[in-house]
């Protein structure tokens, strides 16, 4: 707590002194970027964190490309796609795609990559990215046929950027090289790197798609936020992200930089465990869970502490996701109604619960706790590391858990509602009806049917109040004034879209 | 001397085993690392990682497995970077060693002359100013001083780079911030030793025999006063290693301190365990070395231990 206060004071001092104009590198057309963590690896199939995945996406391309504004799937390495049936998709491959080592991409590279990464022995970091593929085979000279294990509605999502194509020869020779010296077909190639601290990317002149406007990306790992602010204000950086709302607000007043706030897929929530304490917890009662929902003034907290482009959400998903229903039961802040519900449930004198925070900032939960106290719900806030909290939640040891979820940046409720309520380890509600609806939605390619089933499931989740849906996140990036760039809704910065004003 | 050396080595070896056991148990006390390792992955991803890395095995089995590897020089693979920990250590320690040695040199260059001055001119303005500097340096946490330096020298004046570790300019602020952190204890010891030595019979005798002030101070007093500083400098070197975690994070120096910070944040157990062990080994080795030097310089030390 003391440390946080000191850091805030220091940031305030840094910002107050940041009168110097940032010297953006428009002149040599290079973009200086900072991440707060070193990428574990640049091998897209072995990485699990955003910085590494974002960097990998500059180097690799997938078979398709999703338009982030319209949600449509367009060509990339494949010129298009055609569904043969619910479990078969065919994609013709371009002949003019080159890897960064100069070799030409062949259909063999595509087959090799898809079959390898979907095999069990490969141990891809995210299984939902690859596990749906039964096999990939050649049809004709240039067409790949992918057979799915079962109908998989997210196939196109995965084929767009989530399944980069690797050069067979290079990857076969030594897989571990891909983590440090990646070879792909993407818009940028890794020109030099000091692993863990500095990565330099250069525009790939033989890239098959639209060439990026920025020629060089210099990515540095600066773990301390204040160092990032100092570098940005002294002109050493052109772009930083994940800037906390209070700092972003102050940065808005600095003339040399611009704050860009993007609405992203990540959502915050409080999960309520009806089975806590072997079902003896007050949370076992629907009235108590509803009372908790009524006792939090989400809009007030969002406005004061989250800000930016965030919006309150009502269902267990992000409204930007396909299948996220709008017409579910909502709970407007009403402490009197919360008290009444508690009394109806047999707790006229209120209740006391432990709430585990696995993703800061704590200030949000402090505010929520103060509001809930008005309704007679006393919260003991317990901070746990993400890994510990998730393990404890999955083992049923936690009554209330506050965390956030990015859905892998994919705009489909299969990766939000279903992750939490389809009977998997994260599902402590285990409502059979909800599970049935979600199973139907996740295993169909019929969009109408899927939407209907997700809506039915989300309706029950809201009525039963298994969750307190909070808001979707707003991602703040601070950048040089003359840089024209913003992070896409899936939380990926695509630097090849950046231009100078 | 041989018995003294043997005793010291046995104690050090026991300490190393003890530290490794404690560090291993503590690291595992914080829960199953698979969920953290899965990052944004689902519960299924975490379960698969847990099985892949054997996190479900009893801690003693895991410790045994780890210790057998360590004896062979194999610290396992980093869970986060998926590379051998030994390779990571080799990559990150040079920067920390350079930073630590430069900071120690800076600290000694301040502590010795200022300590001598304060000891010689007890109660003077110089003495009070020196003690004030020591108190300020002691009271200021290294990360605060680091940010203060960044504000003045990078943001306001853009004289020095705020991060990185390439040119001499990059060294200035981290070395000053870390060096000032280690300096006060050595300065005060130097001062008090100087004061004590100057009141001893042999110094009085030397003066009575007509030896000049500077000669007495440099040839006799300083030499004797420096002896306890050897032990303290060794201990402070360990403090500098700990301080490097903060300083390397602030200045984005890709050393062992930053690696330690990253592994803590990422729940990278094998890297953390190796770093704790290596930091402890260095600390123990430096203390041992200081004891040996003191033992060699002063036979009374050998007899007493």
From TrEMBL, chain A:
Pfam families in alphabetical order: SBP_bac_5
Q: Determine if Cell division is one of this entry's keywords.
A: no
What family is this protein classified in? Belongs to the bacterial solute-binding protein 5 family.
Q: Which Gene3D superfamilies match?
A: Dipeptide-binding Protein, Domain 1, Dipeptide-binding Protein, Domain 3, Periplasmic binding protein-like II
Chain ranges of the Solute-binding protein family domain: 73-422
Which keywords annotate this record? Signal
- Per its UniProt record, what PANTHER family does this chain match? D,D-DIPEPTIDE-BINDING PERIPLASMIC PROTEIN DDPA-RELATED, PERIPLASMIC BINDING COMPONENT OF ABC TRANSPORTER
This chain belongs to the protein called: ABC transporter substrate-binding protein
Domain of life according to the entry: Bacteria
Q: Where is the signal peptide?
A: 1-21
Automatic annotation (TrEMBL), chain B:
Q: Which PROSITE patterns match?
A: ABC_TM1
CDD domains named among the record's database cross-references: TM_PBP2 (cd06261)
Q: Which residues does the UniProt record annotate as the domain ABC transmembrane type-1?
A: 93-290
Its main subcellular localisation, reduced to a broad class, is membrane
TM segment ranges: 99-120, 132-151, 171-190, 241-262, 274-297
Q: Which UniProt keywords apply?
A: Cell membrane, Membrane, Transmembrane, Transmembrane helix, Transport
Q: Where in the cell is it found?
A: Cell membrane
Cell membrane among keywords:
yes
One Pfam family this sequence matches: BPD_transp_1_N
This protein's record includes keyword Cytoplasm: no
The UniProt entry lists membrane topology as: Multi-pass membrane protein
- Record family assignment: Belongs to the binding-protein-dependent transport system permease family.
Protein name stated in the entry = ABC transporter permease
Q: What is the scientific name of the source organism?
A: Achromobacter seleniivolatilans
